[in-house]
Every structure is written in structure tokens, then in C-alpha cells.
Write a structure and sequence with these properties.
CATH topology: TIM Barrel
Structural class: alpha/beta
Helix content: 40-55%
Number of strands: 9
Oligomer: single chain
Bound molecules: flavin-adenine dinucleotide
CATH architecture: Alpha-Beta Barrel
Number of helices: 10
Length: about 300
């Protein structure tokens, strides 16, 4: 008998689609962790893998380098994140053209956080793209790109209301966004209620849930505070007292993440975006529970001697 969380999903016959998010590494050591994670997750055949863009545009070159290497060394489809921050339109357009020229076909378009830090007022760069919708339109003008944007089940911290936040999402969709990926959340009801409101607003693009598997509760809590995502009390109590017990924490982390995604599958969700934090193990295990199996790369065709 399976405990409820591990019950094979009633919807397991629906094809599950996943994507993985990575951040560009700063050091050689981080680079090797990232690449071993990519190698482990690639055989799960994600729809795409995305590479973030550092706050304030601080990783422009590193994002480009990571995306280029994914294109050159794997058969994965990379999506490059790009923000409106700290650059004028010409500079951003050059980045987009650079991606177009090396064969990138997918950009995750974001406004970015205020240069003076989260919580301060956002000021558009003079001569830059003012809002994400302007960036989306700019990218679509420059090439045949698929464009993903963000969505916030608990509203963006700067939005005065959920309605204002849905208006912002609608401007991005009107500008041509093909898909939205949500900020992470831990309470599935929040996502499903948000989805209802998005659909009631007439927005029909996929709203893919962004899943942050919690490896380290303290770290996840501090991310959540900055991102305006709530952390339910029950989540804290699951990790309580395990600060010094890495092995149990890992098992609890896997159980908590499995519970969240399998509940979403049971409630009809079949597409997931994982915030991997450049670590493969937990995400690999969750994907396995979702029914995904590693597929070996196709053997090159043999030429008869
Ligand atoms: P948007 O959703 O475009 O807007 C945020 C708020 O601005 C809105 O709620 C609204 O209040 C206002 N607004 C938006 N459009 C309009 C409009 N047309 N008129 C008036 N007001 C408007 N940050 C990075 O620096 N690098 C990354 O790689 C990165 N990746 C991310 C990936 C995902 C999936 C998510 C969810 C977030 C990511 N972020 C990233 C964080 C993001 O940059 C910040 O949350 C930022 O503060 C908002 O950018 P956005 O594109 O999400 O904003």
C-alpha cells in the first residue's frame, strides 16, 4: 500500500513535460557541478533548459557562454533569460541578435529587479526597454523567437493588487509571449486559484508552474522572502530539527517535493519548470516519480564497411 503522497498518479498516462532552469557558474568548480547536473538531467529529454541572467545584467557574458556551450555540446534546446535592466535598447538588441546568430530560438524575457535592490522603486534605464512587454515586442521584432515570461501566483511584490499583476501579464501576452513560468510556490491551491483568475482574464497561454525543490529550508525561506512567495508553516515543521542531519533532510526534501508535484499531476497539471539550483539529484528523482525515464542519445548511424 502506498502512502497518499506516493500513490501512482491517476493522470500518469498524460504526457509529462519538463524544463530545467540553471544559473551561470562563477568558478571552475561551479562550472563542473553545473555540467555534471546537465549531463545527468539531459537524458530526461526536457522541452528546454533555461539559463538565468544575473541581477543588474551582471552575468551577460556568463549567461551567453553557458547557453553557447549547451548548444555546442548537447542536443538540448537552451532558453536564455534576458532582463531590461542596466542596458539601452541597442545593447539589449545586440544581445538578442547574438543569440539569434548562434541558433538560440527561445528567450525568457523579464523586467529584472531595481538596480538599487529589491524593495526600492524600479526605474527604467534611460533609452532602455521600460517594461517586460516592450522587451517581448522587441525580441519578437528581431527574430522568430519563442518567448517565455514570468507569472506570479501570489502577485509580484511591486504590484498593488493581483488584478494589476494580471494586467501586467496581459500586456506581456499581448506583446507576443508564448508561455509564462511562475514564481515558485509551496501551496498548490495558490497556483490553481491563480490559474483560474488568469483564464477568467482571457489569458490562454500555458502558465507553467515553477517548482523549487527545497534542499535547504533556511535558504528557500530567504529566497521566498525576497520573491514575495509565502512559506506555509507545515513546510517549516517538516524540516524542523534536521539542520545537522543531512541524510534525513535529503529524504524529507524528496518526499516534500514529490508530494507537491504528484498532487499537481493529480489535479491535471502536466508541465513543470524546475528551479534546479544547478543540482540534479532531487530533480532527477522527482522526474522519475513523474514517470520520466532517461533516454540514451541516439547512436550515430553506422556506415556499412
Ligand atoms: P513583470 O511581471 O513584467 O512586472 C513586474 C511588475 O511591474 C508588475 O507586477 C507591475 O507591478 C509592473 N508592471 C509590469 N508591466 C507593466 C506595465 N506594462 N505597466 C505598468 N506596470 C507594469 N531576474 C533576473 O534578474 N534574472 C533572471 O534570469 C530572472 N529569471 C526569472 C525567471 C522567472 C520564471 C521568474 C518568475 C522571475 C525571474 N527573475 C529574474 C526575477 C524578475 O526579474 C523580478 O521578479 C523582477 O522584479 C520583475 O521582473 P518580471 O519580468 O517578472 O516583471
Amino acid at each position: 500500500m502506498f502512502p497518499a503522497a506516493f500513490r501512482p498518479s491517476r493522470h500518469s498516462s498524460r504526457p509529462i513535460r519538463v524544463s530545467f532552469e540553471f544559473f551561470p557558474p562563477k568558478t571552475d568548480e561551479m562550472e563542473s557541478v553545473l555540467w555534471s547536473s546537465i549531463e545527468r538531467l539531459a537524458p530526461l529529454r526536457p522541452d528546454f533548459v533555461s539559463v538565468t541572467y544575473g541581477a543588474g545584467g551582471s552575468t551577460r557574458e556568463r549567461t551567453h557562454k553557458t547557453v553557447s556551450r549547451i548548444l555546442a555540446e548537447t542536443d538540448l534546446k537552451p532558453a536564455a533569460h534576458l532582463t531590461c535592466v542596466a542596458a539601452n535598447r541597442d545593447e539589449i538588441d545586440d544581445v538578442v541578435r547574438g543569440y539569434r546568430d548562434i541558433g538560440v530560438r527561445h528567450i525568457v524575457a523579464l523586467r529584472g529587479d531595481p538596480m538599487a535592490g529589491i524593495g526600492t522603486a524600479y526605474e527604467a534605464h534611460p533609452g532602455g526597454y521600460a517594461q517586460t512587454c516592450d522587451l517581448v515586442a522587441g525580441i519578437k521584432r528581431l527574430g522568430d523567437f519563442e518567448v517565455s515570461v514570468s507569472a506570479y501566483p501570489e502577485k509580484h511584490p511591486e504590484a498593488p493588487s493581483i488584478e494589476a499583476d494580471l494586467d501586467a501579464l496581459a500586456t506581456k501576452v499581448d506583446a507576443g509571449a508564448d508561455r509564462a513560468i511562475t514564481q515558485f510556490f509551496f501551496d498548490n491551491d495558490l497556483y490553481l486559484r491563480y490559474l483560474d483568475r488568469v483564464r477568467a482574464r482571457g489569458i490562454t497561454i500555458p502558465i507553467v508552474p515553477g517548482i523549487l525543490p527545497v534542499q535547504n529550508f533556511k535558504l528557500a525561506k530567504s529566497f521566498a522572502e525576497r520573491a514575495g512567495a509565502s512559506v506555509p508553516e507545515w513546510l517549516g515543521s517538516r524540516f524542523e530539527g534536521l539542520e545537522g542531519d543531512v541524510d534525513t533532510r535529503k529524504m524529507v526534501a524528496a518526499a516534500v517535493a514529490a508530494e507537491q508535484v504528484l498532487d499537481l499531476v493529480d489535479r491535471g497539471v502536466s508541465e513543470f519548470h524546475f528551479y534546479t539550483m544547478n543540482r540534479a539529484d532531487l530533480v532527477f528523482a522527482i522526474c522519475h516519480l513523474l514517470g520520466l525515464r532517461a533516454v540514451a542519445p541516439a547512436e550515430p548511424a553506422r556506415v556499412a564497411a
